[in-house]
């Protein structure tokens, strides 16, 4: 690696902190799955192309994506998020909790505002993942909350604090490296995963990030969630009006 790229490492390398976060997540995810108990059925009324359908799904297990799998590969490929009972946005991989009417939103809708917002926010999360893994071990990366995306212009950003480096100004070569890592992550097509967790568990997950810890008390009165992007990236956390962030303005687990 040339001197101009001395701040960046080659490829994304999982840290001990990320591994610990993933271990905590996996343990809690498995615990919640085992606690489901007797499986109840729910009626899901799908409205949309290729045709309306009535589906019998599993309560607290089946997701909008699972519904799409029963109907069309096209729906699986193009759907960005779901709309429940015509009023509530719902992540594609979030289990359904009761009988409902289901619509699947995508970029070719007459008004793709929510799909666009989901896309740009998801890109912000991916950028946070790339930045958290891009620097060498002597540089500490602290992720902040990312600003809300400007959907009209199409943009995504993520604020970070770098410790161990003074007034770093990325060179053109370094920016190309970061862009390449972003493209690589996109092609991996790693799914966002959702998990509702307690305040104590959220604090354990983000004990090494003072910015994330500061956010938790301000939203604990509403609800707490966490998402993981992949086993090799770092958790991110961002507040919203009544949940935590990402793909549909929920929380983010990497």
From TrEMBL:
Alphabetical list of InterPro entries matching this protein = Beta-grasp_dom_sf, Pro-tRNA_synthetase, TGS, Thr/Ala-tRNA-synth_IIc_edit
List the CDD domains hit by this protein, alphabetically.
Answer: TGS_ThrRS
Domain TGS: residue ranges: 40-106
Q: Name one Pfam family in it.
A: TGS
Q: What Gene Ontology molecular-function terms does this entry list?
A: nucleotide binding; RNA binding
Tell me the domain of life: Eukaryota
GO CC annotation: mitochondrion
Protein name as annotated: 39S ribosomal protein L39, mitochondrial-like
The organism's taxonomy opens as: Eukaryota, Metazoa, Ecdysozoa, Arthropoda, Hexapoda
């Amino acid at each position: 690696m040339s001197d101009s790229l001395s701040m960046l490492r080659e490829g994304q390398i999982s840290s001990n902190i990320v591994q610990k976060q993933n271990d905590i997540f996996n343990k809690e995810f498995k615990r919640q799955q085992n606690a489901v108990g007797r499986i109840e059925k729910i009626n899901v009324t799908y409205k949309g192309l290729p045709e309306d359908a009535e589906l019998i799904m599993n309560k607290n297990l089946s997701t909008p994506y699972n519904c799409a799998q029963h109907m069309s590969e096209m729906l699986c490929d193009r759907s960005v998020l779901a709309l429940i009972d015509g009023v509530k946005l719902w992540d594609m991989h979030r289990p359904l909790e009761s009988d409902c009417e289901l619509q699947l939103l995508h970029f070719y809708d007459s008004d793709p505002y929510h799909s666009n917002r989901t896309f740009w926010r998801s890109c912000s999360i991916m950028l946070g993942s790339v930045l958290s893994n891009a620097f060498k071990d002597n540089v500490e990366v602290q992720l902040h909350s990312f600003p809300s995306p400007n959907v009209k212009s199409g943009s995504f950003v993520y604020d970070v604090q770098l410790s161990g480096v003074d007034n770093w100004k990325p060179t053109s070569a370094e920016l190309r490296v970061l862009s390449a890592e972003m493209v690589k992550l996109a092609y991996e097509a790693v799914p966002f995963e959702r998990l509702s967790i307690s305040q104590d568990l959220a604090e354990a997950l983000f004990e090494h990030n003072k910015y994330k810890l500061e956010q938790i008390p301000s939203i604990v009165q509403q609800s707490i969630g966490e998402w993981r992007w992949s086993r090799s990236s770092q958790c991110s956390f961002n507040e919203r009006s009544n949940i935590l962030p990402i793909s549909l303005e929920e929380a983010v687990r990497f």
